[in-house]
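Dear Dr. H.,

I hope your travels went smoothly. While you were away I took the liberty of generating a structure for the chain from your last submission, since the lab meeting agenda had it listed for discussion. I wanted you to have the full record in hand beforehand rather than looking at slides cold. The sequence, exactly as received, is reproduced here:
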Amino acid sequence: MSVSIIEYKPAVTLQRYVEFYWEGQFNTIHQPQLKLQVAPNGFVELIIHLSDLHCELPVSNGWSQSPDYTIIGLYTRPYEVHFNQLVTTFGIRFKPEGIYNLFGIPASVFSENYEDMELILGKEFREYCEQVRVSTDINQKVILSNQYLCKQLERNHPESTYLNRAAELIRNTNGVEKIDELPNRIYISLRQLQREFKQKIGVTPKQYYRIARLNDVNRMLEKNGHIEFTKIAHDCGYADQAHFIRDFKSIMGVNPTLFIKERHQYLVNIQRADSVEGKECA
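The corresponding predicted structure, in token form, is as follows:
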């Protein structure tokens, strides 16, 4: 296995905004160049590189080493990443609406792209990241992250909004929640919801729903290996098998049969954290 990822729960207070923390090792078998297609998962990733060895991400004229502290936005199609040596990281997987709640920055700023988060957040953020880098204890990294993010929470005083409720409903309904039914659940018009999604998250509710449903598909495949497509279509809320295959290919770029065959070429990480129990902010 060329990739190892371990997940950790954030503080209870942060779980509205953060899916989990994670510790990752990539190219653990030291291939000359490991190329992976990263599957869309509907989240925003902050990646803190723990050494001077980084991954390479695409730029307009080729490939570039990723920044020390990289924020990767919400993608709607797979993107490629290269690992030329062992790369070790500590990451934070943000719910896309959570980025705005914590930092006042809409996830739409990073859509289909990545940025140097130090340039955006400045000195205090850099100091937090430097503390994470020098710490050799994963529990301490989690504590530092809880403290830093809880401080942001105290500053911004975010309130629960219909955007938060709608995004959480989409993620947690296993493809059953229909977009047209959301306004009745959160008491807002579909047009308002669509506008807020585009402004704060960067995609429409329907696009986000399709990505969330793809996560459900990948969870089923991860748990059961190859599984009948008719069962996937039924369990994940597709109209039929043909609709499932067509939707899968439109996002992933390949049909599900080829994806299963070439699964080792994809980085698919959609499990929920259960390694460490979250605690309240101190």
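Two observations you may find useful: Residues 21 and 92 are 5 Å apart (CA to CA). The domain at 162-267 is CATH 1.10.10.60 (Arc Repressor Mutant, subunit A).

With kind regards,
E. W.
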